[in-house]
Each structure stands twice: as C-alpha cells, then as structure tokens.
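Hi R.,

Here's the chain you asked about this morning:
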Amino acid sequence: MFLLVLGFVFVRLSPATFLRLVHIYRSLPAAVVLAVLVSGVVYFALDSARLVLMDLLRVGDRVRRALLLGTVGLWLAASTAAAVLMLWYPAWTLFGTPP
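And the predicted structure, written out as tokens:
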C-alpha cells in the first residue's frame, strides 16, 4: 500500500521516477512477492468461509476433514491460476521469449 501511495507522489514530482517505479513493479521478484501475498489472502478467505460453514452446518463436525480438503484444493487451484497470470509478463520480459 505504501508503494502505491509513493507511486502517486512520484507521478506529481517526476514522471521519469514514476516510470522507474513501474519497472520495479513489473520485475520478477516483485511479482513473486505479490503472488505469495495474493495466495495468503485467498487462503485466509477460503478458510474463513470453511469455519463459518462448520459453525452453521449441523453436520460440521462430521465433514470437517472434507471441508478442509476442499478448502486446500480450491486454494491450490486459485493460487496456481493467479500465479500463472501474475508471473506471465515478468517471466516473458526476463527470458525474452513468451513462456
């Protein structure tokens, strides 16, 4: 969040500095950090929904393992799709050929 605000400040002060900041955003290390952050947020949301379902359903105790496995499966699918989408452009610019 701090970098986003910093980016807006750089637009007003120096457009060249802003373009360098955008280049850092599009680098592979920044994209990996962003992918890990998104993966954590997705897991937190899915696990929170699992906990709510366990509290609201009468059979929540009996299907606890199935809900956990479903949560992990959805998390892996969503995180993999998000990582591919977020790392596509940085990998393409780093290695020079479309991945």
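The longest helix spans residues 64-95.

Let me know if you need anything else.
M.
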